UniProtKB/TrEMBL annotation, chain A:
SUPFAM superfamilies assigned: Ferritin-like
Any one Gene Ontology cellular component term annotated for this protein: cytosol
Originating organism: Nitratireductor indicus C115
Top-level taxonomic group: Bacteria
GO terms (BP aspect): phenylacetate catabolic process
Name of the featured protein: Phenylacetate-CoA oxygenase subunit PaaI
InterPro entries: Aromatic_CoA_ox/epox, Ferritin-like, Ferritin-like_SF, PaaA_PaaC, PaaC
TrEMBL record, chain B:
Listed name of the protein: Phenylacetate-CoA oxygenase subunit PaaA
Domain of life: Bacteria
Gene3D superfamilies per the UniProt record, alphabetical: 1.20.1260.10
Transmembrane segments: none
UniProt-listed SUPFAM superfamilies: Ferritin-like
Record-linked InterPro entries: Aromatic_CoA_ox/epox (IPR052703), Ferritin-like (IPR012347), Ferritin-like_SF (IPR009078), PaaA (IPR011881), PaaA_PaaC (IPR007814)
Amino acid sequence: MAATVSREVLTAFLLRLADDHLVIGHRLSEWCGHAPMLEEDLAMPNMALDLIGQARALYQYAGEVEGKGRDEDQIAYLRRERDYVNCLLAERENGDFAHTMLRQLYFAAFMQPLWQGMLSSSDAHLAGIAAKAEKEVAYHVRHAGEWVVRLGDGTPESTRRMRAAVDALAPYVDELFESDDVTAAIVKAGIAPDPATLRPSFEAIVGPIFAEAGLEWVEASYGQTGGRQGRHGEALGYLLADLQHMQRTYPGMVW
Amino acid sequence: MYSQGLIGAKTDTTEDEAFLVAFQARIDAEEKIEPNDPMPEGYRRTLIRQIGQHAHSEIVGMLPEGNWITRAPSLRRKAALLAKVQDEGGHGLYLYSAAETLGVSREEMTEELLSGKAKYSSIFNYPTLTWADIGAIGWLVDGAAIMNQIPLCRCSYGPYARAMIRVCKEESFHQRQGYEIMMTLARGAPEQKEMAQDALNRWWWPSLMMFGPHDADSQHGDQSMKWKIKRFTNDELRQKFVDATVPQGEFIGLTFPDPELKWNEEKGAYDFGAIDWDEFWRVVKGHGPMNRERLAARQKAWDDGAWVREAALAHAEKRKARREAAKMAAE
């Protein structure tokens, strides 16, 4: 029988996942009405909706596990900056469309094997969330991957922009695969795979896309880290100011 | 969402009398006109104009609502708003496709929007200042749009009528969702009720203007009615909207910003005050609080996205060339 984990550890793990999804979903939703074409004005909110939906399921479950009576909104909206534990990749600003699509591809290519691993989680509730999310993330991989190919292969300008995006996001890839005491306990309890073991699956997704796009992989000379400890980039504060505006201005009200 | 009374289409047409009589006979027999059917040029032009305006309204309408996605007060509201704005984009896509059946491309229509030649619903030239505005838009603006659009499900032009059936189903869901936001606010804390009342105060009159000028001042209403593109006049639809909406507002304890609004027993409908048509025409002509920002945002999205659209096209062509080259090599 697998080891069990404490409430604190499972809550910490769920919050990482939930914050990743909320924050990158927030970023995608910033495009709404400003996309390069109408089809993308539909596709990006659609993906954002999947991500916010996944975040909600995770926050709700985190609230239950934590056992302090906090609901999804209290957890999502009412923590302080240093309490958000999303990866740095998720909070990177949209930049141009090449940056946004590459960021989405990286995140989805990380999440796809993670969700797949959680399909057989010892935690039945999480396995249920994974069953739905795994289908959605497959679409995100495909959609973002197709754009990376189009833009990498398209025109000299789009190739230049795509390469710039690869360069700009390179420092934020390694952090996705970090392990620590929390992930170790989660792995031991059979709840989710070790992020460190997901790198080959990530590369198996991103590699062929890069090859078709004519892009070369860029190793970051120095990977940025700290998101899981609540050490973020400056841009996250503004994102939280937007996100939390209503809940902070009108405390305790029902919407 | 968001069709408004048609502004500025020329309905004059030059076909001979026999053709026009035969066409009118089909309309009078309630036959649907389909894309490849012969039709008077004025009919085609009116529809292109109206469907184009409708599509543009959906697209521009994403901006004031999108303005609150990142600040939605709860995750549930955020998800619902994302889904709603996505629906609006879908309606835009659907309507552009319907207009394309009349021989105009989406690119041409987009250029007309950006140049200011084509109109969109003026209601979106007002700003969304508070969260309650998202409720008010759903309740009032989608509510007004539904009044306009339900009869359009029976419009004589087949593709438009069929598009409207699906659009109306989604709009009526949005309208209920908007009303539910307003109800939650109206029954909430004093600050929330105040927010809801303020939104009603600001959106009520512009919503009434969505139906377009009074019948007596509407240039093109008669011909559109005769061609059964329109089934009710602007004033008839406006009255229906007032009659349906006022009890809803009163039910949740909100007050309409019109001292002359009162039930007229004899008429079996509400009387209401005079609409400020100067404001209406001012906003239509580009001087509303947000006209410049709305068009600038669409222009920026179009310009910033040009390299993406070019890349997609270039990639498709390269891929085709590679496929053909591979096929040649194999033969």
